[in-house]
Amino acid sequence: MSETEIFDEMWGRDGCLREPYRAFHAWFEGEDPKRLRAKQREAEELFRLTGITFNVYGKAEAEERLIPFDIIPRIISGPEWARLSRGIEQRVRAINAFLHDIYHKQEIVKAGRIPEEMIRRNDAFLPHMIGVEPPGGVYTHIVGIDLVRTGPGEFYVLEDNARTPSGVSYMLENRETMLRMFPELFSRIRVRPVQTYPFELRRSLAASAPGCAAGDPVVAVLTPGIYNSAYFEHAFLADQMGVELVEGHDLRVVDGRVAMRTTRGYKPIDVLYRRVDDDFLDPLNFNPESTLGVPGIMDVYRAGGITIANAPGTGIADDKAIYSYMPEIVEFYTGERPLLQNVQTWRCSEPDALAHVLDNLGDLVVKEVHGSGGYGMLIGPTASRKEIAAFRRKLRARPGNYIAQPTLSLSTVPVFTRAGLVPRHVDLRPFVLVSPGSINVTPGGLTRVALKKGSLVVNSSQGGGTKDTWVLED
Amino acid sequence: MLGKTANGLFWMSRYLERAENTSRLIETGQRIALTRLGDDAREWASILQTTGAYPAFMAAHEEVTKEAAINWMLRDRGNPSSIRGCIEAARQNARLVRTAITGEAWEAINAAYMGACKSLSRKVTERDLPEVLQRIRQGTALVRGMILGTMMRNEIFDFLRIGTFLERADFTARIVDVKYYVLLPSVSAVGTTIDNVHWESILRAVSGRGGFRMEYGAGGGPREIVHFLVLDRRMPRSLAFCATKMEDNLRYLDPEGRTASLRMVRDLKTRYLSHDVSAIFDYGLHEFIQSVLSALGDVAAQIEGDFRFYE
User: Fold this and answer.
1) Contacts of A249 in chain B (CB under 8 A)
2) Which of A253, A287, A352, B79 is the most exposed place for a label (fewest CB within 10 A)?
3) What predicted TM-score, i.e. pTM, was given to this entire model?
4) Domain with A431 in it
């Protein structure tokens, strides 16, 4: 696709200021760029002082880096959001129904909508979860749906993060920073608040407590520890919810409950919001080398003694090979047409698809089925001949390990630079909370932005930045 | 509260207090050295002895020089109790207990850390030293202010306070002992100018010069100074003051008095801090201080056990 087809969320395709940005643009025009540059630096200082940093793995001295923050907000109108959030809700409802089904009767397989080996042979399928009824029937208490936009009304789901989606602390801190720096903007423009997220999260987790919980359920956040790249977020959420932040070695199974070691002895936990992968959750049931988890927690879980959020085994729903079946999944469980579009996906495990992909490598994006973070992928249009040749070999060797998608022309939003406003590609991760009988989409989300001109990679580990995301109250 | 959190709070405040005290100690050393009355190397050696870091220092250096001694205590990577090491460790612990302390307290620690990183990133020249030391103490004072001004008076606060006063008592005991090391070879120096300069410096190190003069006017010798630093309950860095605070905060944590740590602090007070100053000198000042230091170490270990820091 050519440059001119790119949709800019502020200027559209034709350079006409779009409605959602009108009030912001009027304010921006009246600002002195020098003051804004000073504000941009101030924002950085603020982030450093609050400690909103992420750790970089593999460095001798644990280096803490800031994710660059851009002061120009990404703005979504009320009606745009209403449509989007209906689609998200539908998708999340389907994901939970799908998870319940594949760990119980597998109706969708029996109906022939998904091949059996897609489930049985999938590394993300967790046999331990077969027949387990999670408290309140909720599998994914927290979901982050990655969306991209290609036109005024065209949103595509790129990925469903159903394991332990991260980034919500940036959504909250970005807003906090904007409020601190530009209070006048928020009195001029009515932006829907996101700040109640931690409160909603706690309410939502408490509502999913197991039957054995007495009174106000005890909630805790489980972190792999201080050296984890998202440690700041774990501490931030525990702090904002007013619950304990625990590590594996603070926990132990006592009298059939998972309990934390306090200064006055062991105290049972009802709901554990874990930010530790399935594999590390329980050395007795999964990876025996793990020191991050709690020996025996799976047995307590299966006996209904604790809620684990998200439930173990949810990875099967955000697996990239399963992704290609999402339209069927949504239809099968909701009986409705999917409101959000899926990106066309070729499963390289299928010979016809593989042939097509190999013929068109230069135009496609190829991803590892279990990869994340923008690693291990090929972006055809920007790759060198050598890189394409190398990927061709990998594809032939293990076709089942890959999927391919067309290169989408992601929308852009301006970022503030020394040279003024320049367009950069963005994506969007809204956050969704699920509790028994309720799905709650926070109005906003995390907008990630590729800071390099023309780049489509928005991951923070590869030089991406973030923006505050506004949903207008209209 | 989690045992791990109690541990983090306890050590966070210990490290902050230690950073502050080490900066006081360097200042004292510098002051003693600048009076040019003694032998530089020997005095810095005794300062290092005070911190208990002398053997580690000598393992890494051929001889004691002023520059090396100051650098060791300020920022040497070989010394985990250097000011830089302490502030890093304090911040690390603060990150660990981020959910227990207020945002303001956390930001103050983070600011102290960023300041220290900057000013200690390279060797500090003699000219910059006073300002660097002062800024470090301002940083830690701001943290203390934020803790006092914004934190709930609950068990979180108690663990912070216990850590602070345990570390402070330890330091005051050690600084009284500096006199022992500095003057060891020459009992004849008692009452001389050098002697007075030393005592004066020690009072300064614990910000006690003004208070002492208020109390004793132009008079007061070693006996009064030891009384002031060990037994005076109004002096916020004296052993008696610190022990009383530890006892108070331990009692809040354990109103029924079941823990061994509370009993041990009470014992320590009865045994060492309820006598007349002459009893201390009869016992031998150095021996007295060494006994107090070891009792403080036992209390710290008992607190770890009583409140399940690790197990």
Assistant:
1) 4
2) A352
3) 0.88
4) 19-341+408-471
